[in-house]
User: Which sequence fits this backbone?
């Protein structure tokens, strides 16, 4: 983990939100940031916490979730580095609308709201990227709502696994996610989701390796999810 503490000269490079900024602006913003390291299962922030900082993931991955009155959880999305968390609360100053937990050892740069807003006010390119991120979030939430209406549980599991694969380079790389976490993502019980995954494994579409899921027939999973067999290039 010591290697994570050596922050490079341009730590915001590769993060889509800051893609339109020049090197000088990225460095100026990064200079106000604090580097933090989180262990797996550690909470970065909780629903209701002040929305006064932006998290820039440099390494690792996190789950964004809401908690119910009985303590049950619904995972809204997974975010992998390089990416950002908390940009919406940063703009409106409202408390966090969800909680975030590391699902792998994770390092983040934490940017204060004041430094971020100062740059937003002086650089239109950053505001354009924020609007783009807000639009992507709205589309994702709309799609999730539609999936729960129109897809059965196996379809939602298949689609979730396909979407998770989109964040890794090799389609045969394991999806480092427990079956319980998949259940939280698709809104099903762990027992029901485990049965779906066993069925998919029996059909040769995937296999499990410890806590990870390896996809072995992506085309079949895409068909079961109601997705085009070949994604658009």
Assistant:
């Amino acid at each position: 983990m010591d290697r994570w503490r050596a922050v490079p000269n341009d730590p915001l490079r590769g993060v889509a939100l800051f893609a339109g900024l020049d090197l000088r602006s990225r460095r100026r913003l990064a200079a106000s940031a604090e580097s933090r390291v989180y262990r797996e299962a550690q909470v970065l922030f909780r629903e209701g916490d002040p929305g006064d900082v932006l998290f820039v993931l440099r390494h690792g991955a996190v789950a964004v979730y809401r908690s119910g009155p009985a303590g049950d959880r619904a995972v809204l999305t997974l975010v992998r580095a390089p990416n950002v968390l908390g940009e919406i609360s940063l703009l409106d100053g409202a408390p966090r609308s969800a909680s975030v937990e590391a699902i792998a050892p994770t390092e983040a740069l934490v940017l204060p709201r004041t430094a971020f807003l100062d740059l937003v006010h002086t650089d239109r390119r950053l505001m354009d990227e924020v609007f783009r991120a807000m639009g992507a979030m709205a589309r994702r939430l709309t799609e999730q709502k539609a999936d729960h209406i129109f897809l059965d549980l196996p379809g939602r599991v298949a689609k979730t696994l396909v979407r998770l694969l989109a964040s890794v380079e090799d389609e045969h790389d394991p999806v480092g996610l427990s079956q319980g976490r998949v259940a939280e993502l698709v809104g099903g019980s762990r027992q029901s989701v485990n049965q779906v995954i066993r069925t998919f494994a029996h059909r040769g579409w995937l296999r499990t390796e410890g806590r990870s899921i390896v996809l072995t027939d992506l085309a079949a999973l895409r068909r079961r999810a109601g997705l085009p067999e070949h994604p658009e290039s």
Summary: Residues 183 and 193 are 6 Å apart (CA to CA). The first helix runs from residue 23 to 30. The radius of gyration is 19 Å. Confidence is low (pLDDT under 50) at residues 1-7, 169-173.
